[in-house]
Amino acid sequence: MITLTDLTKRYGSTLAVDRLSFRIRPGLVTGFLGPNGAGKSTTMRMIVGLDRPTGGQVVIDGSRYDRIGEPLRRVGAMLDAQGTHGGRSARDHLRWLAQSNRIPAKRVEEVLEKVGIAEVAGRRTRGFSLGMSQRLGIAAALLGDPPILLLDEPVNGLDPEGVRWIRTLMRNLAEEGRTIFVSSHLMSEMAITADHLVVIGRGRLLADTSMAEFIDANARSWIRIRSPQPEQLLDALAGAGITARRDDDGTFEVEGGDTERVGDVLAEGGVTLHELSPRHASLEEAFIRMTEDSVEYSAEGTAHEGAAK
Ligand SMILES: Nc1ncnc2c1ncn2[C@@H]1O[C@H](COP(=O)(O)OP(=O)(O)OP(=O)(O)O)[C@@H](O)[C@H]1O
Fold first, then answer.
1. Which pLDDT score is estimated for 94?
2. Which atom, in ligand 1's list, is nearest to the CA of 17?
3. What is this structure's pTM?
4. Is the dihedral of CA 84, 85, 86, 91 positive or negative?
5. Does the C-beta of 201 come closer than 6 Å to ligand 1?
6. Between 54 and which of 6, 10, 192, 212 could a Cys-Cys bridge form, CB atoms 3.0 to 4.6 Å apart?
7. Whole-number mean pLDDT of the chain?
8. From the alpha carbon of 38, which atom of ligand 1 is closest?
9. What is the largest CA-CA distance in the chain?
10. Nearest partner of 259 among 212, 207, 215, 223, judged by Cα
11. Nearest C-alpha neighbor of 174 from the set 3, 26, 2
């Protein structure tokens, strides 16, 4: 369990993390979401002692990270996939890490196999593709077989196969009872991967909820109807006990999703239709709505893009 209490980080006049309090529980993939600059990386860096909080604290099973002996055995982190020494081979990089944490060298071969880079492990990491670097970063995080894993934007720049691989790996690790804390700025990615969501904006906590609750609250579906006979339309629907709401643009919305029934009712009422279409609010849109007041930089007019599909 990772516990953040009023965790705060200020860089000069920038309040990067603002009194964050939440818990990250074992056995779950917890998605850490927020727009660019929300404070996700800063928070993760403070969890593993790479940045000092300006206020508040974060503890891992009750202890500060810098008080944990052999920390790679307790917490694995991939915070910057490019953070290896480019002149070393992948294998040497991992051996050096293993040695400094008293982890046996044979574990290096195990993790190289696990992340699928055993064949290129003798090459210098300078020439690694982004995908290979991400895998090496994950290998380093897994080295001490830690019960807690922190991954900062692990799918960035990966091809679809790589994305699927990381997703499956995280799910399997959570099922083994580990604590998985993974950041992303993509709701769509988290919707597939995470059990729990923590959303921040401008350093502040905006939501701490299960994925199921988030979907329940935000995955609204409705039917959009256009007709040149609005009065007949309302009468026909009302006769069948269906409530329709008129939108500003003259279209109608019926909450819920039985398109066939609504179509049948309107056909029986002899109502001419120009459109009858099922609509679903996307989770991405719910996320954008939740965070739009806290976006650091946004191009005008992009906030509601891709609203409904
Ligand atoms: N070392 C630093 N010095 C000064 N400001 C910093 C530093 N690190 C981060 N910041 C600022 O703190 C804020 C939070 O940045 P952070 O990188 O934690 O956000 P993020 O949510 O990880 O963003 P992204 O999705 O773009 O990676 C930003 O305004 C950023 O410019």
1. 93
2. 14
3. 0.81
4. negative
5. no
6. 10
7. 88
8. 21
9. 79
10. 223
11. 26
Domains in the chain, CATH or no CATH each: 2-209 (3.40.50.300), 221-280 (3.30.70.100)
Give yes or no for a contact between 166 and 141, defined as CB atoms under 8 angstroms apart: no
How far separated are the first and last CA of the chain, in Å rounded?
38
Nearest to 279 by CA among 217, 231, 221: 221
40 phi/psi in degrees, rounded to 5: -65, -50
Query: Rounded CA gap, 12 and 10, in Å?
Result: 6
- State whether the beta carbon of 37 lies less than 6 angstroms from ligand 1: yes
pLDDT (tens digit per residue) in 53-62: 999 999 999 9
What is the distance in A from the centroid of ligand 1 to the CA of 36? Answer: 8
pLDDT at 145 over 70: yes
pLDDT band at 295 (very low <50, low <70, confident <90, very high): low
Tokens of 126: 């300078």
Give the model confidence (pLDDT) of 158-200 as tens digits.
888 889 999 999 999 999 999 999 998 888 889 889 999 999 9
185 in Cβ contact with 35 (< 8 Å): yes
Tell me, in angstroms, the distance from the centre of ligand 1 to residue 45's CA: 11
